[in-house]
Each structure stands twice: as C-alpha cells, then as structure tokens.
Amino acid sequence: MNIQKGDQKFFLGEDEQYPKAVITYGFSDDGDVVINHTEVSDDLRGQGVAGKLVEEVVNYAREEGKKVNPVCPYAKNKMERTPEYRDILVQ
Description:
Aminopeptidase; 5-stranded mixed sheet; about 25% helix; about 30% strand; globular; Acyl_CoA_acyltransferase; acyltransferase activity, transferring groups other than amino-acyl groups; GNAT_dom; Gcn5-rel_NAT
C-alpha cells in the first residue's frame, strides 16, 4: 500500500486530485491536527485502507508533537477504539 502525503492529506492513488482513498486534515487554533474527512473508493473497501490512513495522520502528528482531534466520524471511532492512539487524542 503506497500511501502518499499531499497538501493537508494522505492519499492512495496516482493523482492527489482524484485519489482512490484519502484522509484530509487541517489545524485548530491550538495547533492540533483536525481530521475532517476520510473516503475510500468502493474497490478498496474492506481492506483496512481507512485505518491505515488514520495511522498515517497519527504518525505525522506524533512526529510534529501535536494532538489529534478527529472530527470525521470514522476517524473518531477508530481512534477511540484503538488504545495506542488514546495518548494523542484531544480530550
């Protein structure tokens, strides 16, 4: 799985503008990473792609010394259910 970093996103596919899977984020006033959208194409669903995208954002936030605020329902659920992510989750 070749996940690439784009402009405030991580994506899968050849073209950042038309990705096969994508997770987008921004930043809060406090500097936290805010995950706002996760989308996976039908042909990639059920393969753990969305979870890998969340993992990429978590790794990025850790490298930058930031917390993550998942506004996206999928990312919020994934992060709350994953014990390894709780330390970086905005409370």
